[in-house]
Fold these 4 entries.
Entry 1:
Amino acid sequence: MTVATTLDIVGMQPEEYRAVMDKLGVEGRPEAGIYLHATITMDFGYRVVEIWERKEQFEDFLEKRLAPVTKTLGINRKIEITITPLHNLFAPRLDELPGLVSALPGGPRARKLSEAL
């Protein structure tokens, strides 16, 4: 069953988020079973919303990829995780997302541009 997952990460800093994403390499080599990853800046830190093909795939990713990476990087933040069955997904402008994502402050292209300066 397809699920929506939410990770509320308390106190995470932009540099930590970017380090985790870079170390995971998921933007170039996504985990099998993931359809969508969106990160939202919140007053408490970050909220990560994902759509997964199955709950078990998400749980495997947490255990086998995410936990080891955050441990290696020395990042230990309080995380509240919610997993719920997906009821509907509406994405009428999906083909426009690649251009939008690369322009966002936390996106891989924006980071590479700032490093070049």
Note: The chain has a mean pLDDT of 89.
Entry 2:
Amino acid sequence: MGLATIAAALATVSAVAHHAFAMFDQSRMIYMPGTVKHFALVNPHAWLHVAIANDKGQVSTWAFEGGSVQQLASLGWSPQTFRVGDRVEVGFHPMKDGSHRGQLISARHAN
């Protein structure tokens, strides 16, 4: 019984460490429009890749890490929710290092 308790505690620590979001700036929320390049509804986290133009018109691809398949499916998401070429607006917590990635908080079709 003692070993099972220790194993459960260690598994919990690993799970918490895996799901840390320290690399994202939780104090900032940004909304940006763009065009879907790729959407992967996969575990452990979904990914939405979006082509986004800056204020000079230069386009770069941003990668947004979302929730798990189960979390997103409970919100009505499916592998067909976002298709290549769809215009979307994403809401996200940006990376602290300024790279073109973020923690996906919301995504909606432009229409």
Note: The radius of gyration is 17 Å.
Entry 3:
Amino acid sequence: MPVTKSVEREMRTADRRQVRNKAVDTLTKTEVKKVNKAMSSGDIETAKGNLAAAISVLDKAVEKKIIHKNNAARKKSRIMKKFNALKATAKPENK
């Protein structure tokens, strides 16, 4: 337990931040999973929409300093790489 009042206040602040950060972190993981699930099923249109949402959520998490910018860049790079590979292997329609 904290000894001083200032440490007590800091602990309360840390608890509030932890709850807020956990919500954003969970959202980023959920959005990335949605993209991966859509790509594994082969649905390019759904994956494209989910990809935009995932990138947006990752960028917002970086702005709020919840995840490091390199962590977000790595995640975006990996899902873009998978998405581009999926697009390349998909048969072109009406060409």
Note: The CA atoms of residues 63 and 69 lie 9 Å apart.
Entry 4:
Amino acid sequence: MLGFASCGNKSIEKVATSEQQHHEEKGRVELTGAQFKFANIEFGKIESRSLSGTIAVNGILDVPPQNMVTVSAIMGGFIKTTKLLQGMEVKEGEVIASIQNPDFIQIQSQFLENKQKLLFLEQEYKRQEELYQENVSSAKIFQQVSSEFHTMEANQGALAERLLILNINPKTLTQSNIRSTVNILAPISGFVITVNVNLGKYVQPQDIICEIMDTKHLHAELTVFEKDISKLKKGQKIRFQLVNEGNRERTAYVFLINHQISTDRTIRVHAHLDKEDLNLMPNMYLKALIETGSENVNSLPESAIVQSEGIDYIFIKAGLENHAQTDTTGKNLEANEPKEEEHAFEAIEVKKGLVQNGFAEVFLPKDFDIRKAEVVTKGAYVILAKRENTEGEGH
């Protein structure tokens, strides 16, 4: 009887040791049939899928330099009239103010005076040219008249340009319409964003009267960190959201890439919007994703990848191992007759890559068999919770 008891104790110890090793097997999790049903577990395969890499950046809406104009007076004078108000819309060529200066009268008068002199010199030039060709007049006289005529012609051309700058048409200028007030016209269509004048104020040529901005062609000015510069290319698609528009998504494309890195180790990327919107305003803050290109990668639904202590895992279906079990009377059951239905899973450490449209790139161990593995695509967090609880009880 002592020998029988000794053999019995060894058998019990052997079973206990086997069960302990079974439960402590690293990465292996078992669920009962009820737990499996509760978790609503689904399986899937690792598939090759085309995913686009992205760069997350911030930026603002801005206008190109040619779409923002600073309006100044060509010559000094007093503001005679103005209707400028911040925010008002103006059209190109529209009168936005008028300026008064007695010097305007002198320029017009000089132009009309030179106009008459030029007519006389032109006639004298033609007469001396004929005389010179017939050897009646000397070359010296002809050269002197020619010099005076061309000098006056040049001066008259310069005065005509000054009048055009002052928005006075030299072709229609006569003695009867000389004026001391000239109009200032809007050089572009857009919105007035600053006004620096009022009636009666004297402005110098370098003074800013107002600023006009054309917001029809806004672009996105993005800030990209140095580590992502090598991924940038012209024409790449951009998806962005304005902070005041919730989840509304807009699109643009990379138009220009700056080639100078700033002191904060970033570069500026200029992007054109695919669709213009007059409701947008400069300096609106935005968040964007620059798509760096598509490639075929091993992927799984995001729900298949779980994380524990900073490590990503997936669970695959594993075969059940046969272990000796006992019923309520202590009698051993056959290894091929489990107490209840069980499901086994194996945890595989992976790395998560690109994520897009609910799918994630997954980097697998070198010896992983993609064709045979059945991956848990739904319910993975329930299995992870069971695994962590089991490990906690073991400690």
Note: Residues 103-133 form the longest helix (31 residues).
